[in-house]
Amino acid sequence: MEEKLLANDLPKNKLHLKIITHAKIVFDADVDEIYSRAEDGEFGVLLNHIPFTCPLDIGVTKIVTNGKSEHFTTMGGIFQLKDNQALILTQSAEHGSDIDVARAKDAKERAEERLAVSTEDLDVKRAEIALARAMVRLKASLNK
Ligand code: ATP
């Protein structure tokens, strides 16, 4: 008996990526390539990559779709990949074009001032993390 192929049965040639925070779904679409920053360094994922999960660092996640790239900040959390379905669960995420550059510059200056005067471990750690967030926001805003 001849069987008809339904659209859903056709082999998919895209990855699917969701970027989710506790507050919202920031991105939910098919992509061709994903690049992000894990705690132990940068990584890239193409179609049919083996499944893996890793903790994310504060960084920029780049996606490429039909030759066009977009950039998001991703602030820690986890990356999961299985069966070409990728999921980023992160503290906060912003598309490069949604970033308030003046706010990120202010946050960078505040963190740098704190680092210049503080010697307390906790303050230094907090300021370093705030500085890292501000720096990736500025980086993502340049790339869009
Ligand atoms: P700030 O000191 O400017 O508040 P922050 O690093 O403390 O920066 P977060 O706690 O990381 O801010 O984020 C709080 C919320 O504000 C999140 O929803 C985040 O997406 C948003 N946010 C923070 N900075 C920016 C920015 N420069 N542009 C757009 N959204 C931002």
Cofactors and ligands present?
adenosine-5'-triphosphate
Rg for CA atoms: 18 Å
Q: Return the string of H and E elements.
A: EEEEEEEEHH
- Counting helices, strands and paired strands, the structural category is alpha+beta
Which regions contain 5 or more consecutive residues with pLDDT less than 50?
none
Distance between the termini: 51 Å
Shape: elongated
User: Which CATH-level-2 architecture of the largest domain?
Assistant: Sandwich
Mean pLDDT: 92
What is the topological layout?
Elements: E1 15-20, E2 25-31, E3 33-38, E4 41-45, E5 52-65, E6 68-82, E7 85-89, E8 93-95, H1 101-117, H2 121-143
Parallel strand pairs: 1-7
Antiparallel strand pairs: 1-2, 3-4, 3-5, 5-6, 6-7, 6-8
Helix pairs in contact: 1-2
Bound molecules: adenosine-5'-triphosphate.
Residues 75, 92, 94, 98-100, 103-104, 107, 130, 133, 137 line the site of adenosine-5'-triphosphate.
Give the gist of this structure.
With 144 residues, this protein is an alpha+beta fold. It has 2 helices and 8 strands; from the N terminus they run ββββββββαα.
Structure, described:
The protein is of the alpha+beta class. It folds into two domains: 12-97, ATP Synthase, domain 1 (Sandwich), CATH 2.60.15.10; 98-143, Single alpha-helices involved in coiled-coils or other helix-helix interfaces (Up-down Bundle). Helices cover 28% and strands 42% of the residues. The protein contains two helices and eight strands. It has helices spanning 101-117, 121-143, and strands at 15-20, 25-31, 33-38, 41-45, 52-65, 68-82, 85-89, 93-95. Strands 1, 2, 3, 4, 5, 6, 7 and 8 form an eight-stranded mixed β-sheet that branches. Bound molecules: adenosine-5'-triphosphate. Residues 75, 92, 94, 98-100, 103-104, 107, 130, 133, 137 line the site of adenosine-5'-triphosphate.
